[in-house]
Amino acid sequence: MTIQQLSEAVMSRSYPPEFRRKVLDLVASGRKVAEVAQLLGISDQTIYVRRRQHLIDTGQLPGTNSTGQSELAVARKRIAELEPSWPSTGRHSALGMFNPVEYELRTPPVA
Description:
The chain has 6 helices and no strands. It is mainly alpha-helical. The chain has a domain at 3-63: Arc Repressor Mutant, subunit A. The radius of gyration is 25 Å and the shape is elongated.
């Protein structure tokens, strides 16, 4: 991938894996982060975040790897989709403090 192709890849919000790999290779080859950022038109912070995530993914730093983050994102999205369908009978029902069905089952009939 040439520098021109790398610069064109910057147009999308999510960078392709080969772009991210090339950025890390440029920094690993001894170029300064600021130089690579300016050359490619991305922020320094983007490079630092990507480098840190690479270290986590390779086991050199503790943290949640990229696969784990993807799974969490999918789970959070699914929860957000399901939340509006949760029944609500009052302030405490979301906390599981009062469930009318369970209450009726536990309460003995009055004679």
